[in-house]
Design brief:
Elements (H helix, E strand, L loop, with lengths): L1 E10 L2 E11 L4 E5 L6 H8 L5 E8 L2 E2 L5 H7 E4 L10 H6 L14 H13 L15 H14 L4 E5 L7 H16 L3 E5 L3 H7 L2 E6 L2 E6 L1 H5 L2 H7 L2 E7 L2 E7 L1
């Protein structure tokens, strides 16, 4: 489990998070929701040690973050960021970067590494694009390549910052189904999402944030039915049942 207690962060002296408490249960899909700029990305970046100034406590599997080396952290947590540069390399070589935490210098890839990379590419549905350069792919295909790199990293935890961005509807479903399969395999998944229907159907645990603070946490239906969701987003929510299960609709 990843735990955060009284997390406060700042960028260039400006406070962003104000005493955030959060738990991300092992083997479950946890989703952070909230308006743009409320601190969701800063929260997950803090877990990855990507925020220069913070106070409070972050622990991974009961071990304080400051006691985990950067290399060991990379063996525990993979991070798929929201925005990134597009390197001038092929999909295969990009996914191979996920194996770096396991290699000594000079880097010599083993058969095990290549097998893991090829399996990750297959799971992401990129077999036909393995030898293409990232710059020649669509935004959705690039997103899948970064997801494949995270899979190749073979970590206990995968953090995804808005993973369905740039994806069409079909690929959004595929991405969320991948996350569910990984959770079923025992992986801990932490996601930032804006699609409340996806949150309802895929999240085991939801953390609602506003203005750099955690407002409410709990099961997906519990949180989405709460008055706090309507207050935080300034919307009205409703629910309806179909043969496929419970659905949510939003209105201003």
């Amino acid at each position: 489990m990843i735990s955060i207690r009284n997390l406060c962060t700042s960028y260039d002296g400006e406070a962003v998070l104000h005493g955030v408490d959060a738990d991300f249960p092992e083997g479950k899909i946890s989703v952070l929701i909230g308006p743009n700029g409320c601190g969701k990305s800063t929260t997950v970046k803090s877990v990855m040690r990507l925020v220069p100034e913070y106070t409070g406590m972050i622990s991974v599997g009961g071990v304080p973050l400051e006691d985990i080396s950067q290399k060991d952290l990379a063996k525990k947590i993979a991070y798929v960021s929201q925005s990134r540069n597009v390197p001038d390399i092929t999909v295969y070589n990009m996914v191979m970067h996920g194996r770096y935490p396991y290699l000594s210098y000079p880097r010599h890839y083993r058969k095990e590494d290549r097998d893991i990379v090829e399996a990750a590419i297959r799971m992401a549905g990129l077999e036909d694009f393995a030898n293409r350069k990232l710059e020649n792919l669509s935004g959705g295909q690039r997103q899948k390549a970064y997801m494949a790199m995270a899979l190749a990293q073979d970590t206990e935890v995968i953090i995804m910052d808005e993973p369905t961005t740039f994806l069409d509807v079909k690929n959004q479903f595929e991405m969320m189904d991948h996350a569910k399969k990984l959770s079923d395999m025992g992986k801990t998944i932490i996601m930032i999402l804006h699609d409340m229907e996806a949150v309802l159907h895929y999240a085991d645990h939801v953390i609602l944030m506003k203005d750099g603070r955690d407002v409410l946490s709990g099961g997906a239906e519990e949180v989405l039915r709460s008055k706090e969701v309507e207050e935080v987003f300034g919307i009205h929510t409703g629910f309806y049942e179909t043969e496929d299960g419970l659905h949510i609709y939003l209105r201003s």
